[in-house]
């Protein structure tokens, strides 16, 4: 995708990244550098040595030790926020106030009211706001929607999902921010469960009932196991298990209907097994090798076309609202 000005000349969307952690190293930086019409101009990290190493590894010309310095760079058009969840709100508001478009990591914020503040600020500044849920761009989910819409699964009855994320200690042996409530706001429900909630809302629409239960190894810690059930307006029920530190990530996603079963496990693979009276039919619908590339491309296209990105701030808010209700139901049950 190439961007053009009103005069028809090519332009470049110049990006800055706040936070240079694992997800940025694995996918985000390379995704920005891959999408045509984008340039990764600057990054920010407080650790001087780590910042210099990142800039060298990804050939980034500008490294800033503070977010304020990066946001003061007038040549930056858009900011990708990849910091702990507790920092999303203040950094998004500061980025928008500086006139930048904002794409923020998931979950969007700690609480729904923070999401609303971000949405309102983006509207006030006339800037684009998006959230980094990349699974809506999976071709296998488009295929699943087609199977449901054409009746090949019959009446959809239920969805079964299980997912996990590893917990890796920091280099100094300290726990990562994801297991600290003040930084992440919760455990696997916030971390990996949020991705699945986003997918479910897109597939099935309005949620009419929510039940949840979360387990903690200590009262002051985030949950390490979360189970919840969502019931949708059309009667479909989705049961989801979210874990930290399972022996492996099951990444299962199974849709059960009256005429067929669609097994998308593991979801990240793009494989789909359609099970019906004719037997098993195996299909392959592989995602982009870098999951973030379609997300970045759509976000940039949304800015150029003056439309909402496919994963908007409003979408992020809906996910956070469901998460909050799951936690509320879990507390009431204990």
UniProtKB/TrEMBL annotation:
Domain Gfo/Idh/MocA-like oxidoreductase N-terminal as annotated: residue spans: 13-133
Keyword set, alphabetical order: Oxidoreductase
Source organism, top-level taxon: Bacteria
Domain GFO/IDH/MocA-like oxidoreductase: 143-261
Signal peptide (residue range): none
Pfam family membership, one: GFO_IDH_MocA_C3
Keyword NAD: no
GO molecular function: nucleotide binding; oxidoreductase activity
InterPro entries: Gfo/Idh/MocA-like_OxRdtase_N (IPR000683), Gfo/Idh/MocA_oxidrdct_glycsds (IPR050463), GFO_IDH_MocA-like_dom (IPR055170), NAD(P)-bd_dom_sf (IPR036291)
The protein's name: Gfo/Idh/MocA family oxidoreductase
Organism whose genome encodes this protein: Blastopirellula sediminis
